What does this fold into?
Amino acid sequence: MNEAFWHHPAVIMTGYFSVVVLCLVVAMAIFEAVTRYKNWQEIKNGNLAVAFATGGKIFGICNIFRYSIDKHNSLVEMIGWGLFGFFLLIIAYLLYEFFTPTFNIDKEIENDNRAVGFISLTISVGLSFVIGASIS
It folds into this structure.
């Protein structure tokens, strides 16, 4: 194939898209391991708190990668900064649990406490903008 093919915007976009989807799948598997509940089983059962928290994580991860794509020209740099941003999002989730010692975040979300699930969503989305803006 000629060099022009690999520099076509549609090919580049497809490459970034494919890599980010793969990173999202890996990130969600890691979040599944970090939380005490089974995200997809709880969502299947209609647990809105888990759906809020999971949706916030998905949005947060994608938003971080959006910034990473915007600021980096190479696929390797984009992946590196995106994964670093994802790591910070995990740290934020663990800090959320740490700074709320009066109740257990995972247990509340598993018990469909929608207020806690919504705050989890808001933390993930909000911090994804801060992390994304900080990516250099």
Observations:
- The first helix runs from residue 3 to 6.
- The mean pLDDT is 92.
